[in-house]
Write a structure and sequence with these properties.
Chain lengths: 306, 150
């Protein structure tokens, strides 16, 4: 880990460095969702049990499980047939907070590789539409493959710069997920290169992009709609400061409380260094990797008044 | 992004009926041309939303490919028709199904003249396979869907 990163993390008031380093050394738990678009949850679980897999229910995610025993699920016929979707347990939280309802029109603005887009499709139960967008043609391949394997009929895939989406989708959507590209400090145990290549310049650049993306996502929301902003990182510049900026830029933006049963989390920061932020940011959630010995995340739920 | 014309849709449905005994296959969905004989299925609502957006890359699911008048069903295409497929279905055991998903050819007795069959394991459909003159069936599983050997 670079000295720059250590010094930054030490400035975070709610971070315990020794615990974070311990979490970074541990492999992330393997989670999966049973795909109820293809079969019943019980049938899928029964198939996995027959093969010797053991798993525990994830309390905050419908259809979500974490593997407790058994070999790599990625090589199973259940995975290849799309009966299960491999996804980190905390990564299932943002779509749960968004809570798509059957019949709604939902935008996933930065959708690749499609974990959350397929989760949204599952929660829509085949009614309504999920629009999955990404800016990268290369990443779109993973997204389209995953939507196909998951069996999503009510989806549209677009290849566009998310920042420009309001030009043709102004106030079109009931719900929007902005799971923004980030410096990924919540998933370092998957790839230590993340910690090695981290820099304050990278964070500044990402923060600027995230501000534009959250604003674009918000402008695509119908009045009365709900936006969820999430990242898998820990920096304030990529999390609270981005949401605080949206609150300043759009009068109709209001933070909303949410619950995630069984998921250990802490409130969003309202002060950091020289920054004094909106008190409402306490309604957002910071999740450290050692809180649940899983991925670190930041989640904010924002409603558009009107 | 074009829908199958009514005559193209009729032809596709006729072939589905002739090959797999499917009546009213995909009747609740719109069918979209996707190039090289590929057919995608989507809900009408998804198709209408796509028409409002820009830079649309695809809509719905790839369900089948028409090759020289034969319908080759994708895994999802066959799963969507679940219960409607009444002809040319081969039942696989669990190990055979795993072999199918590795695209390994399998030997099953097939009536002469049949070019494509659909594989099924318990309640799960696994897409089409090509029946060859050498008595084997070759699964038409896309490379990216195959279980790797390692």
């Amino acid at each position: 880990m670079s000295d720059d990163l250590k010094s930054y993390l030490n400035r975070l008031p709610d971070l315990e460095m020794a615990m974070l380093l311990e979490a970074y050394e541990k492999p992330l738990p393997e989670g999966f969702r049973a795909n109820t678009l293809k079969s019943s949850e019980e049938r899928i679980l029964e198939r996995l049990r027959r093969r010797g897999y053991e798993f525990r229910k994830i309390p905050w995610a419908r259809y979500g499980y974490v593997l407790a025993g058994g070999e790599n699920l990625g090589k199973t016929i259940e995975h290849m047939l799309g009966l299960i979707y491999l996804q980190g347990p905390v990564s299932m939280a943002p779509a749960e907070v968004l809570d798509p309802r059957p019949g709604e029109l939902v935008l996933d603005l930065c959708a690749s590789p499609g974990s959350k887009a397929t989760q949204i499709a599952q929660l829509l139960e085949g009614r309504g539409v999920v629009v999955a967008n990404d800016i990268s043609y290369e990443r779109l391949k993973a997204l389209t493959s995953n939507l196909q394997r998951f069996g999503v009929l009510n989806c549209v895939v677009t290849l566009a710069d998310g920042r420009k989406y309001p030009r043709f989708a102004w106030e079109l959507f009931d719900k929007v997920l902005v799971d923004a590209p980030c410096s990924s400090l919540g998933i370092v145990s998957r790839d230590w290169g993340i910690a090695r290549s981290w820099s304050t310049r990278l964070v500044e650049r990402l923060s600027s992009l995230q501000k534009q993306l959250i604003l674009a996502g918000f402008d695509c929301l119908k009045p009365g709609g709900v936006l969820v902003y999430s990242t898998c990182t820990l920096t304030v510049e990529e999390n609270e400061l981005v949401v605080d900026w949206l609150l300043k830029m759009r009068d109709s933006a209001r933070l909303v409380d949410f619950s995630l049963p069984g998921l250990k989390r802490r409130s969003g920061l309202t002060e950091f260094g020289d920054f004094k932020l909106d008190e409402e940011l306490r309604k957002t959630a910071r999740i450290m990797p050692y809180d649940n010995w899983a991925e670190g995340f930041y989640i904010a739920k924002i409603a558009k008044e009107g | 992004m074009k829908l199958l014309s009514s005559s193209e849709r009729r032809y596709f449905e006729e072939r589905l009926r002739a090959q797999y005994g499917v009546e009213n296959g995909f009747s609740e969905y719109v069918l979209i041309k996707a190039g090289q004989g590929r057919v995608r299925a989507a809900t009408l609502e998804a198709f209408e939303v796509a028409a409002r957006l820009r830079r649309v890359q695809q809509v719905g699911l790839y369900v089948a490919k028409l090759v020289k008048g034969d319908v080759i069903l994708s895994i999802e295409g066959s799963q969507l028709l679940n219960g409607k497929i009444r002809k040319n279905v081969i039942e696989l055991s669990e190990p055979e199904a795993e072999g199918w998903m590795r695209a390994s050819p399998i030997e099953k007795p097939i009536k002469p003249g049949i070019r494509y069959v659909v594989a099924k394991c318990e309640e799960l459909y696994l897409g089409s396979g090509r029946a060859s003159r050498d008595g084997r069936i070759y699964p038409q599983v896309a490379k990216w869907r195959r279980i790797s050997e390692e």
